[in-house]
Amino acid sequence: MNHIDASEHYDESAFTGQTPSLLTIIIDTNPRAWAALNDTLPISKAIANILVFVNAHLAFGNDNQVAVLAAHTNRAVWLYPKSPNPDSVAGPDSQDVEMTGVDGRPSHPELGTSANKYPQFAQIETSILTSLRSLIDNTTTFDLKPTTLISGALTIALSYIHKTSLAFEPSKTSKDPANPTTAPSATLAAPTLHARILVLSVSDSEPAQYIPTMNAVFAASHARIHLDTISLHGMPTFLQQAAFITGGTFLSAASNPRGLLSFLMFGFLADAEARRSLITPTQDSVDFRAACFCHRNVVDTGFVCSICLSIFCEVPENAECLTCGTKLALGSYGAKPAVIPRKKKKKKRINGINGREETGSATGTPVPA
Amino acid sequence: MSANASSLFQYLEQLKGTTFGRLYQQPSTTFAIFRRMLPHLAKTIVMAILYMPTPFLLSDLDIWIKPTAKRDKDQAISILRSLHIVLRDASPTISLNTNFKNSLRLALEGGGDHNSFGVPSTQPPPDDIDLGFLDRYARKKWDDILHFVVNSVGFSTSEKGSSGPKQSVKDLLIGGRLVERSGVTHRITQAGFTFLLQEANAQVWTLLLLWLEAADVASSSGRGLLGGLESVDMLSFFFLLASLEHGRAYETSALTEARKNMLPTLVDFGLVYIPPANPQQFFPTRLATTLTSSDTALRSVSAGFLASGEGGGGGLGDSAGDKSSIILETNFRMYAYVQSPLQIAVLALFSELKFRFRGLVSGHLTRASIRQAVDMGITSDQIISYLASHAHKQMHRVAASTRKPLLPPVVVDQIRLWQLDTERMLATPGFLFKEFDDYKEYVAICNFAEDIGVVVWRNDKKCMFFANKVEQIKGFMKDRKKSNESK
């Protein structure tokens, strides 16, 4: 039927305009890591670069939106827009009170009075800087952990994106009762909002957060949200996997953190619409190692429950899966394999180029023909 | 790029390179042109090379962009060149116009002392001026202008008490041939219909461009009609207005003398409001601040009109209904949530209205009604684009979720067919290319023209093609000739 009405020749691109895009930036604010980076790229400079990047994103169209989160060592904090429920964790929220202007009129005499700045940009800058300052002021030496709560920030970002995209979706209330197929499920519909998440990472991935992080990543992948990561310091293994899974971009700027702005502008500014016509940087190797469910260790080889696919670094107690409780049969694990001595064949090996590493198994992995 | 940016684009395209150099000195202008005039891919390219320390090779660009998107790329580069954003030399690198680069950087970073985003007034604004007031004021002024145009059709509208636009605005409309003077009364022209059926944003631009052209003519003929205004300065002032914040007071004294002289006319258009008590301040209205918005944003602006209009009286209700109000069904029935006599008069131009309720009119699109419209000089494309740009939110949502065209294809086709009943020709000004040396040359040039989207018609057998723009092709042919000679 769809072919009969020949609707392809209706060029209505002039009426549809460009799809708005929402960029959520998660800034890793781990104090230790930034201290280590201080010689090459102080956080103030990094924030300035990010602000330019945010402005560039907003410059694409005035329905583009931006949200900025800080992933701290022990919590995730909204930098822009302001948290809807100003929690008491962040201490006295004096700046929240002064930001809500007078009777809704956008006249903040204390901000954006400069005639040299686009008003919206000035507003975002002020919001991010005040929130960040209060975050830094509220950080005690007790909080100085080497890793960052990235999964919490990812979760908040995802829920925010979901909330925002609801506003753009066709309303489901006034569905045509005679023709229920007019509103198909969201997976079929064209996206009305391009959303993506950019993580500015400076620390290693915390194995203890493997499960929540991966849950967030799969949720993002399901919602077709790209998860981009730029890593300035450390090795965020899980975020690397996240970029691979969600079709995002992972770049490591650890060799040259000063070039942050160039990395951002070239590698990360293109939204989903532009990426359709661009070749995005790809990763040559992805560290796919997972963390085990029992001790949160990153493992190369481990045990996998045959029922629920939980990963363990050692045989769990009583050989019962910790997640689903299935009694697992270990087969002849630990027994010495009966080795049939083979005739030693002299095989010429061109060093290394032969490809396959010494895996200890005589036959290779079966490959489908 | 949207449909209503095209008239502005045409105006900009015919400007000289030096003019662009001066336009790009202002960060707000640069920012507005970047935001408004460029296609998505072009924006991405500009942003990527904006902070690049070394020149960017065109061959690298080819690597970066997927081969399937070559057409988009060529179009993007072509637009960037014609707006003088990237330099037009034949070097293998692509680099930004220096003024453009510096200004866009300033716009993104803030800083500098160009004051191009408006100097906010330090004095407290009068209490009675809020968003609702400004919206009502702008709507009133603009409706007056539209009424003047519509009334010349002969439909009498019931709204009385509006004095109509100022004589200078009337002269502008007549000078722009939107209406013609025939004896005592005025008669609308085809351009006038085009104007009426546009979105408010496009209408504002049409009028502003008319004003610009009038100023150009005045300055070239040596008459100081508009106080010696210069079109470049006027244009950058428009873009400055677009970057201001709605509902905020700005300092009049910070403007140059020429710009101060522009304010009265802008007041007549309803783009700015100057409180009579305090002429030191001016308020940009929504008409001004949305000058460089994209279409989707305008839809949300109309939502803003609606929100601020609640309790604001009927005057605002119809300004909300002005956008996104028409539901068109496959059975040619049309339901429009409009209140103002003006909107109803516009609808009556091409449809047969059957019922009128409070806040809703319904009618049919019939062969007779479309014929009548076509006889008056309205084209089917104008009707379709009016229906599309005023389509109800729900139509947009359903279209987006089902990946179907916004308007029912059957109706769109039928409107076109009804028009074809009456006229069978479409005139496109342009250039015919023929008598190529060989087929190969023809194919190369024609394909290039096709890629930048200027080919209207081609005939491979006769080795002829017709293009509506020629500058890019000229450059291409020259380059080709040069490279052939060097071989």
From TrEMBL, chain A:
Coiled coil feature spans: none
Pfam families linked: Tfb4 (PF03850)
Sorted UniProt keywords: DNA damage, DNA repair, Metal-binding, Nucleus, Transcription, Transcription regulation, Zinc, Zinc-finger
Biased composition (Polar residues): 360-369
GO BP terms in the entry: nucleotide-excision repair; regulation of DNA-templated transcription
Molecular-function annotations in GO: zinc ion binding
Residue ranges of the region described as Disordered: 343-369
PANTHER family found in the cross-reference section: GENERAL TRANSCRIPTION FACTOR IIH SUBUNIT 3 (PTHR12831:SF0), TRANSCRIPTION INITIATION FACTOR IIH TFIIH , POLYPEPTIDE 3-RELATED (PTHR12831)
Full protein name: General transcription and DNA repair factor IIH subunit TFB4
Species: Anthostomella pinea
Lineage, uppermost ranks: Eukaryota, Fungi, Dikarya, Ascomycota, Pezizomycotina
UniProtKB/TrEMBL annotation, chain B:
Gene3D superfamilies: 3.30.70.2610
GO terms for MF: ATPase activator activity; double-stranded DNA binding
Protein's UniProt keywords contain Ligase: no
Pfam families: Tfb2, Tfb2_C
Any GO CC annotation of this UniProt entry: transcription factor TFIIH holo complex
PANTHER family (UniProt xref): GENERAL TRANSCRIPTION FACTOR IIH SUBUNIT 4 (PTHR13152:SF0), TFIIH, POLYPEPTIDE 4 (PTHR13152)
Protein name: RNA polymerase II transcription factor B subunit 2
Organism of origin: Anthostomella pinea
